[in-house]
Sequence to fold (116 residues):
Amino acid sequence: MSTETPQDRPNGDRVNVIDTATAAHNLPRMLQRFRAGQAEPLIFGDDGQPEAVVVPFDRWELLEELAADAEQAAEARELTRERLAKKRPEDYVTADELAEEFGWNLDSDNEPPATR
Fold:
């Protein structure tokens, strides 16, 4: 018997949380779904609380890249805030200098390299 609990998320989305035993039992079926191109994640946990998610590997790789990009953007924002707070012209840098500091190639249409 499966225990599935709807869970309302802070952003307004609703997810269904599967109990851990059912999730374990359904892993082979989830793999078949992923291979068939159905990428909907399996969200599971105990007592109806989401604790983990099973997603296709290619989706996980994308999430890793996005997380690295977000972390790098946060570092750049923080550095910018610090430099602007000092209001000293000698602390200001050009876009080229900032790109060099973070390893970005401004002459390329490619995304900045992911730091790991």
Q: What stands out?
A: Strands lie at 4-8, 14-19, 42-45, 52-54.
